[in-house]
From TrEMBL:
It comes from the Eukaryota. This is Phytocyanin domain-containing protein. The lineage of its organism: Eukaryota, Viridiplantae, Streptophyta, Embryophyta, Tracheophyta. Keywords: Disulfide bond, Glycoprotein, Signal. Pfam families: Cu_bind_like (PF02298). It comes from Lactuca saligna. GO terms for molecular function: electron transfer activity. Residues 27-129 form the Phytocyanin domain. InterPro entries: Cupredoxin, Phytocyanin-like, Phytocyanin_dom. Residues 1-18 form the signal peptide. The keyword Signal applies. PROSITE patterns: PHYTOCYANIN. GO terms for cellular component: plasma membrane.
Amino acid sequence: MANLKPSLFLIIAMVVSSMEFNHSVATEHVVGDSFGWAVPQNAGFYAMWSLNHTFIIDDTLIFNFTDGFHNVAEVTKEAYDTCNTQNLILIQTTSPTRFTINNVDNHYYICTVGLHCKSFLKLAIRVSVPNNSSAMLSH
């Protein structure tokens, strides 16, 4: 029985530490889930998708789309709001495209093909600070 207590304590400690660790583990988010990155039928589709996810530093956004029909560009908020396809931060034209979140700013993505952005093929995400990363911010 004496050998059981240290083992039980070790198991409990591992479970607790893994629960805390999961809050800061980077996640891969497939944008639009099974729908992917395409012109949505619902104007609020990507806004709702974004609201249903939590994004932190080191998470990755994966954009799946049909090459030649869509692309994905990271843009400023102003370009996102107006669907301005000039002065892009970064553009990717092959699928799947991956963007790794490297700061806590909001991030904005659009499709620059035709009128796709004006047809709501655009995504804005808000990046959260993980619960245990206050030490990261002080550096």
